[in-house]
Automatic annotation (TrEMBL):
Residues 29-48 bind DNA. Residues 6-66 form the HTH tetR-type domain. The keyword Metal-binding does not apply. GO terms for molecular function: DNA-binding transcription factor activity; transcription cis-regulatory region binding. InterPro entries: DNA-bd_HTH_TetR-type_CS, Homeodomain-like_sf, HTH-type_TetR-like_transc_reg, HTH_TetR, MftR_C. It comes from [Actinomadura] parvosata subsp. kistnae. Keywords: DNA-binding, Transcription, Transcription regulation. PROSITE patterns: HTH_TETR_1, HTH_TETR_2. This is TetR family transcriptional regulator. SUPFAM superfamilies: Homeodomain-like.
C-alpha cells in the first residue's frame, strides 16, 4: 500500500458509516474503523480526532462560511434576502457530504451524544448568521429571528437535496423551501394587525 493514499479519508468515512449502521455508533471503535478501511490508526488521526469527528469534520468552518456569504451578498438586499442569497451561495460546500447524508442523519438521530453535537453546531451557525445580519443593519431581535429561520430553511433544503435525486441542486431546494414557507405564512399575515397607538 502506498505511504500516502489520496482516498484514505473517504475510505475511513465510508468504513465508519458502515459500522455505525451495522452495529451502532456506541459499539464501534476507531480500531474497527481502521481495520474495515484497511488503514492504520495513525492515518485515522491524520484526518479525524475521534470517531465522532467522522460525522462532523469540517463543520467548524461552516459558521465563518455562512457569515462571509451573508456579508458578500448584494449590499442593496434587505436582511432576509441577503440571508437566502447566502444559503444558496454555500451549497457547493456540501457536495462531498451528499452521498452519505441520509446515513449520517440516521446515525445522529440514534445517539443523544451526537444530537447534542449537532445542536451545538447549528447554534454556532445561527450565532454567525445573526452577527452578519446585524453587521448589515438588522436589529438584534430581527437578526436572531432571521438566523433561526435561516437554519430551518437550510436544514429542510439540505434534506430535500440529499433525499430527492430529481432536485438539480441545493439552490433550487432553498428556493423551493422558501416558497413553501411564504405560502404557509401568507394566510397568517392577513391576521396580523398592528396595534393602534393609544389616544392621549
Amino acid at each position: 500500500m502506498p505511504r500516502w493514499d489520496p482516498k484514505a479519508q473517504e475510505r475511513l468515512r465510508a468504513a465508519a458509516l458502515e459500522l455505525f449502521v451495522e452495529q451502532g455508533y456506541e459499539n464501534t471503535t476507531v480500531t474497527q474503523i481502521t481495520e474495515r478501511a484497511g488503514l492504520t490508526r495513525r492515518t485515522f488521526s491524520r484526518y479525524f480526532t475521534d470517531k465522532r469527528d467522522v460525522l462532523f469534520a469540517g463543520s467548524e468552518q461552516l459558521p465563518d462560511a455562512v457569515s462571509a456569504a451573508v456579508l458578500r451578498a448584494d449590499a442593496t438586499l434587505p436582511p432576509f434576502q441577503a440571508l437566502l442569497a447566502a444559503l444558496a451561495d454555500i451549497g457547493g460546500l456540501f457536495a462531498d457530504l451528499v452521498p452519505h447524508a441520509a446515513q449520517r442523519r440516521a446515525i445522529i438521530a440514534s445517539s443523544p451524544e451526537l444530537q447534542e453535537r449537532e445542536r451545538t453546531k447549528l447554534a454556532a451557525v445561527a450565532e454567525a448568521l445573526a452577527a452578519a445580519l446585524r453587521e448589515r443593519g438588522a436589529t438584534t431581535s430581527e437578526a436572531k429571528l432571521l438566523a433561526q429561520v435561516g437554519i430551518a430553511v437550510f436544514q429542510t433544503a439540505f434534506e430535500r437535496w440529499t433525499d430527492q435525486p430529481e432536485h438539480a441542486d441545493f439552490t433550487a431546494c432553498v428556493h423551493e423551501t422558501v416558497a413553501e414557507l411564504a405560502s404557509s405564512l401568507a394566510p397568517t399575515a392577513a391576521l396580523v394587525t398592528t396595534p393602534e397607538p393609544e389616544s392621549s
